[in-house]
Every structure is written in structure tokens, then in C-alpha cells.
Amino acid sequence: MIEGKGLGGKRINRINASFTNKEDGDIQKLATACNMKPAELVWILSRRCLYDPVIVDEMQKEYCTQSAYKIVLVNGEYILRGREDL
Questions:
Q1: Domain residues of the chain, as ranges?
Q2: Contact (Cβ atoms closer than 8 angstroms) between residue 63 and residue 80
Q3: Considering the entire predicted model, what is its pTM?
């Protein structure tokens, strides 16, 4: 499928996430405080994290085990940084 082709900006990819009871409660509370549905809140939080260069860098420092797959965020686009040891 061509990305965005005739979809009118609709989101078409789904990812299921499981949360602990405490995390779910916290999501519910924050969603209520922000006057939005929990699913919308989680979507907004994930987008903010995906496009925040600081968070992207922190995640890679903590979890990235293959330097060939490291990326950088440039103007909201992911760019494969590649190996730094060459």
C-alpha cells in the first residue's frame, strides 16, 4: 500500500502495547486531566518521544547493541547513521 494514498490522513498501522495496572491508572488519570481519551494520549506521547532527538539518543545509548543500525533524527526524519568504528 502506498503511504497516505487516498487515506485522508488516517492512521493505518496498529501496534498493541500492554501496560501494568499502575501504568494504566496513570494513563487514565493523565488522559482525564488533559481532557482526552487514553488511546489518544498514548498516541501523542509516542509521537513526542519518536521525534524528540534527546529521547531517541538516550534510547539508543541504553538499548542499541548494533552500531550499524544507529540512527539520528534530522528535521523530523530518521537517518541511518551507520557504523562509527570504520
A1: 16-50, 52-86
A2: no
A3: 0.72
